[in-house]
Amino acid sequence: MKIIKSVADLRHERMKQTHKTIGFVPTMGYLHEGHISLLEKAKMECDWVVLSIFVNPLQFGPNEDFTLYPRDEARDLAIAKKIGIDLVFVPGVEEMYPEESLTRVNVRQVTERLCGAKRPGHFDGVATVVTKLFHMVQPDRAYFGMKDVQQVAVITQMVKDLHFPTTIVPCPTIREADGLAKSSRNVYLNQVERVQATILHQSLTEVEQRVQTGALQTASEMVTYVTEKIKSQPLAHIDYVEALTYPRFETFDQWEQEDILLAVAVFFGRTRLIDNHLIRFKGGETYV
């Protein structure tokens, strides 16, 4: 496994990989089972796999502390080596942004709700850094977890609109045995918060059962059901609960037999957790 810190060295190594299928998993490090599942899928499907570890300052808002984001590079590299990753790109901020960047990549519509509304500029930062990484790595396939469903939608739209020769591979959310989605932020939960946080997955999956039986038929009914279930946990403070069409993230009233995304963001203490559930009308992968 090669560990590369410069863009020039990354491009040099990439140029050697002729006639190979290139897989790419971009991360901000502090790897957990969700990231590992992406890396393992990339290893199965591609000849040469690149992992990037970069905490991107462009995705942090003015009230979000970039310096406090969890980091453990040595542990991440040990995980990557065990999986058999071919190259790990670990650039510093000065390597990715050697001078003030005057360019931002903005994807409209799918960034205007959910976390995009709550964290202005966040997805511009995501789209910008992924664009840079795609230009550097030139992957055939890039792997993203559906826990961050809005990120998947943003990157998929960006790749389509800008004609990147890269296939975006959405992968299922990896969960604890009790349903809590794996996340780097889970380490901040105390024991009581951790138990109460299981209400997120529970409430979202219950909605699908009621939608399929006709007990819930409108977006407002779906949102009300999830909201009341989450409020039953005293430590939960809701940031948002929304029901939208997928993948365009449009509002709707009556369910008209289309794919629906139920998405939540909830604080337990100071820890903000996100989760979602995709209701597929015509079947197919739900990524839950």
Automatic annotation (TrEMBL):
<dbReference type="InterPro" id="IPR004821">
    <property type="entry name" value="Cyt_trans-like"/>
</dbReference>
<comment type="similarity">
    <text>Belongs to the pantothenate synthetase family.</text>
</comment>
<dbReference type="InterPro" id="IPR003721">
    <property type="entry name" value="Pantoate_ligase"/>
</dbReference>
<feature type="binding site">
    <location>
        <position position="59"/>
    </location>
    <ligand>
        <name>beta-alanine</name>
    </ligand>
</feature>
<dbReference type="Pfam" id="PF02569">
    <property type="entry name" value="Pantoate_ligase"/>
</dbReference>
<comment type="subunit">
    <text>Homodimer.</text>
</comment>
<feature type="active site" description="Proton donor">
    <location>
        <position position="35"/>
    </location>
</feature>
<feature type="binding site">
    <location>
        <position position="59"/>
    </location>
    <ligand>
        <name>(R)-pantoate</name>
    </ligand>
</feature>
<dbReference type="GO" id="GO:0005524">
    <property type="term" value="F:ATP binding"/>
</dbReference>
<dbReference type="GO" id="GO:0005829">
    <property type="term" value="C:cytosol"/>
</dbReference>
<keyword id="KW-0566">Pantothenate biosynthesis</keyword>
<feature type="binding site">
    <location>
        <begin position="28"/>
        <end position="35"/>
    </location>
    <ligand>
        <name>ATP</name>
    </ligand>
</feature>
<comment type="function">
    <text>Catalyzes the condensation of pantoate with beta-alanine in an ATP-dependent reaction via a pantoyl-adenylate intermediate.</text>
</comment>
<dbReference type="InterPro" id="IPR014729">
    <property type="entry name" value="Rossmann-like_a/b/a_fold"/>
</dbReference>
<feature type="binding site">
    <location>
        <begin position="182"/>
        <end position="185"/>
    </location>
    <ligand>
        <name>ATP</name>
    </ligand>
</feature>
<keyword id="KW-0547">Nucleotide-binding</keyword>
<protein>
    <recommendedName>
        <fullName>Pantothenate synthetase</fullName>
        <ecNumber>6.3.2.1</ecNumber>
    </recommendedName>
</protein>
<comment type="pathway">
    <text>Cofactor biosynthesis; (R)-pantothenate biosynthesis; (R)-pantothenate from (R)-pantoate and beta-alanine: step 1/1.</text>
</comment>
<feature type="binding site">
    <location>
        <position position="174"/>
    </location>
    <ligand>
        <name>ATP</name>
    </ligand>
</feature>
<dbReference type="GO" id="GO:0004592">
    <property type="term" value="F:pantoate-beta-alanine ligase activity"/>
</dbReference>
<keyword id="KW-0067">ATP-binding</keyword>
<dbReference type="GO" id="GO:0015940">
    <property type="term" value="P:pantothenate biosynthetic process"/>
</dbReference>
<feature type="binding site">
    <location>
        <begin position="145"/>
        <end position="148"/>
    </location>
    <ligand>
        <name>ATP</name>
    </ligand>
</feature>
<feature type="binding site">
    <location>
        <position position="151"/>
    </location>
    <ligand>
        <name>(R)-pantoate</name>
    </ligand>
</feature>
<keyword id="KW-0436">Ligase</keyword>
<keyword id="KW-0963">Cytoplasm</keyword>
<dbReference type="InterPro" id="IPR042176">
    <property type="entry name" value="Pantoate_ligase_C"/>
</dbReference>
